Structure formats: C-alpha cells, structure tokens
Amino acid sequence: MKLNTLRELCLTLWIFYLLSACASNSTVQNDNYISDDKAADINLKLGIEYMRLGRTDIALNKLQKALELDPQYAETYNVLAVLYERLGLVDEAKQHYQTALTFKPKGSDIHNNYGQFLCQQNQWKEAEKHFLQALENPVYQKPEIPYTNAALCALKNHQNSIAETYLRKALGQNTKFPRALYQMAQISYEQENYQQSRDYLQRYLDIAEHTPQSLWLGIRIERKFNNQDTEASYSLLLRRKFPDSQETQLLNQSERQ
C-alpha cells in the first residue's frame, strides 16, 4: 500500500472516530445532536490534518465549513490565514489574520503567525509589534518561538544587534531551543567569535540533527581552528547526506580556490 494511501486511510479512520465520539457524547446530552461548535471544531481539525498531508483543496473546504458552523471561532480564521498565505493569497491571508485577532485579541499564536506574515511582506516594525504582543500573555507556554521569529525578522532587515537580543531572550526561556542556538552560532561566527560559535553549534547538535547549513557552518568554524580532522568529518557528512545542496556547492567551490 502506498504511503499517501495509508495516510488517507488513517485519516478516514480518525474522522470516523471523531464523528463517533461526538455522536456518542451528544446522545447522552441532547438526543444525537452534534452542536455547531463541536462540528466546527471537527472540521477545523480535519482542515489542519489535510494541510499537513498537502491536500490544500480539501483543507480549504473543511476550514470554510468550520467557519459556516461557527463564524466567530478565531482559531479557524488563524488556520485559514496560514493556508491562504501558503497559497500566495496575500490579501485573503491578511484579512483572516485581522479577523482572528478581532475575535481573540490576545491570541499569542495568532499574533506570532501574523508577525511572520508581516515579516514576509517586509513590514519589519509592524511584525515586531505582533511578536511582542504574542509575549504579553503571561501563561503563553512557548515564548521562545516569537522571540526567535522576531530575531529572524530582525536579521532579514539587517538589525543584527536587535536579533541577538531577541535570541538571548529566547534562550533565556528555553536553553535547548534549536533554532535560537543555531542562529546564535551563526551570529557569533559573523562576529568572528569562533569559540562561542563552536559552543553554540555544539549545544545545537546535542539536541538536533545536522542540516546542510549547520554542517557548512561547522566546516568554516573548524577551518578557523585549523582542525582538519573535524573539518574533513563535516565535509564528508555534508557530501554524503546532502549532495545536491547549495552548501555542498559552496564547499566544492571553497576547495577549488
């Protein structure tokens, strides 16, 4: 059985389970009636799962159905905004993010997603505002994410000192957040603080798998220390695991010079 077919079979069984559970609960509560808010939540969850599977057409249908059933559910507008953004429908995405915040003005995940969207539209200051608003909720459990996203947006806009401040705040919240550790390794390298860069990269590798970017950074760090054995190990791994990557091309070019 093909993997996609198996995934869709699993999804179908999950859908049946959700519907059965709701039907069972509502039998006790209200004569087999599934309330609109529960049906909306089911369609929202299905929409998210179909997005994960890459079935954007079905996902869009499920999410629009969720809105029909509960037109004031902020999370549905949030997910729809993400989907529209992936589809390149910028105006629709912006409208749905704003509507989501109308219904849930302190929604941290919504502010974080909207901040990322605004950063992609090159609206750095507006994006930063929403990342910071995501952090205003004292019970938000993932503050390292908007801090890191704010840092990445700052880097994109050549605000390196601001980016470093946000990355340190992210690591203050979660010392093992991989994206923040890698970015601090990258910034430290650019600042010619090679030992610190190596230390951050090692902390990253203690909890995450190598990427082409981390291997190429590791190669350049070890060259600074003239550590030929580790450099060769990183180079071999980069060529073996990511032969078609841009970083492998950069490695090849550097060795020809």
CATH architecture tag of the domain at 1-105: Alpha Horseshoe
Distance between the termini: 49 Å
CATH top level class name of the domain at 1-105: Mainly Alpha
Please tally the helical runs, counting DSSP H or I stretches of 4 or more residues: 14
Q: Give the fraction of residues assigned to helices.
A: over 70%
Low-confidence segments: 8-31
Which term fits the overall shape?
A: elongated
- What is the number of beta strands? 0
Question: In sequence order, what are the helices and strands, one letter per element?
Answer: HHHHHHHHHHHHHH
CATH topology of the domain at 1-105: Serine Threonine Protein Phosphatase 5, Tetratricopeptide repeat
Brief synopsis:
The chain has 257 residues and is mostly helical. The chain has a domain of 105 residues: Alpha Horseshoe (Serine Threonine Protein Phosphatase 5, Tetratricopeptide repeat), CATH 1.25.40. The chain is built from 14 helices and no strands.
